Amino acid sequence: MIGALELGLIYGVMALGVYLTFRILNFPDLTVDGSFTTGAAVSAAMIVNGQNPLLATLAGAAAGLIAGAVTGVLHTKGKIDGLLAGILTMIALWSINLRIMGMANVPLLREDTLFTPLREAGWIGKTWLAVLVIAVVLLALKLLVDWFLSTDLGLAIQATGNNEQMIRSFGVNTDGMKILTLALSNGLVALAGALVAQYQGFADISMGIGLILIGLASVILGQAVLGQRNIFMASLAVLVGSVLYRLIIFFALIAGLNPNDMRAVTAVLVVAALLLPRWGFLKKIPSLNQRGNRKPSQDPPREPDVSATTGVKIPV
After folding, report:
1. Residues 217, 269: contact at Cβ < 8 Å?
2. Under a CB-based contact definition with an 8 Å cutoff, are residues 6 and 135 in contact?
3. Is residue 208 within 8 Å of residue 94, measured between CB atoms?
4. How many whole angstroms separate alpha carbon 252 and alpha carbon 63?
5. Phi-psi region of 26 (alpha: psi -120 to 50; beta: other; left: phi over 0)
6. Long-range contacts of 224-230 (CB under 8 A, 24+ apart)
7. Closest alpha carbon to 216 in 263, 161, 260
8. By the 8 A CB rule, do 207 and 197 touch?
9. Fewest CB atoms within 10 Å of the CB: 139, 198, 215, 255?
10. What is the 3-state secondary structure (H, E, C) of the chain?
11. How far apart are CA 1 and CA 167, in angstroms?
């Protein structure tokens, strides 16, 4: 169970990245399936070649930034549909990741990583101290994201996701906001990939397959439980959802569920998190669909205005 908590917290970094695009920008980004592996590939290749683990991790995150920016440019400047732009980048990253690693799997068991001090101390997977250390680092990253979203730039990004036409009328470069958000999102996803590779002791070319579903499950599950009254609670809910997802998978495996059914379990979790808040006593729980489920105004309809010169009724 401790191992599931540790892995859930590490995957929380990825969930924060998915939250930025899916919830803040309202953009369905499939680049994460490729950028997660990119972060793992870059960090693993650098560590194997004797580079500092921290430097390798930051380089992996930077590679994710570039991947996200490419998707943003394809969508904004190339006028390619957002979903298709993400798919194109994801497909291209498969070959790029193979080139970076040089093989389908890069082992790190005998290499020094960011988790080596915790592993040598006997904390990883055995004591709550490792969970506490990872949780503190993740909380600091969460607060950094919260601070960024509260700045003028972060508010412009939120406005772009809420009403792109309105914020563009105020002179905001919405294309730049999209590119920046996609870059930051995939940077966080790649950072998570680098950390997961070092935690598990290997980087694999297929480790990012289906990751977008895991990220969505974490976002939707967490916000269905805690809600999203403000940025602080919304981002906290994402982290809680990531941990809950890993715990659900852990107990499902303990109960004897076939590991091959994990994707189906994830899909069921997402469907349940979307539907349950609309049924019975759970209707009061804020769901991820609040933005699209606002009630229409209850104000009485206004009489149409009549032009003083033409006498033509103009709807108000």
Report:
1. yes
2. no
3. no
4. 34
5. left
6. 224/273, 224/274, 224/276, 224/277, 224/285, 224/287, 224/288, 225/285, 227/285, 227/286, 228/23, 228/286, 228/288, 228/290, 229/286
7. 263
8. yes
9. 255
10. CHHHHHHHHHHHHHHHHHHHHHHHCCCCCCCHHHHHHHHHHHHHHHHHCCCCHHHHHHHHHHHHHHHHHHHHHHHHCCCCCHHHHHHHHHHHHHHHHHHHHCCCEEECCCCCCCCHHHHHCCCCCCCHHHHHHHHHHHHHHHHHHHHHHHCHHHHHHHHHHHCHHHHHHCCCCHHHHHHHHHHHHHHHHHHHHHHHHHHHCEEECCCCCCHHHHHHHHHHHHHHHHCCCCHHHHHHHHHHHHHHHHHHHHHHHHCCCCHHHHHHHHHHHHHHHHHHHHCHHHHHCCCCCCCCCCCCCCCCCCCCEECCCCCCEECC
11. 46
Sequence letter at residue 53: P
Amino acid type, 22: F
Burial of residue 245 (CB within 10 Å: 0-12, 13-18, 19+) is buried
Residuewise pLDDT in 10s, the chain (316 residues)? 788 888 889 999 999 999 999 989 989 899 999 999 999 999 999 999 989 999 999 999 999 999 999 999 999 999 999 899 999 999 999 999 999 998 989 998 888 889 888 888 888 877 888 889 999 999 999 999 999 999 999 999 999 998 888 888 888 899 999 999 999 999 999 999 999 999 998 999 988 888 888 888 888 888 877 877 888 998 999 999 889 888 888 888 887 777 777 778 778 877 877 776 666 444 554 444 444 444 444 444 444 444 433 344 434 3
Letter for the amino acid at 40?
Answer: A
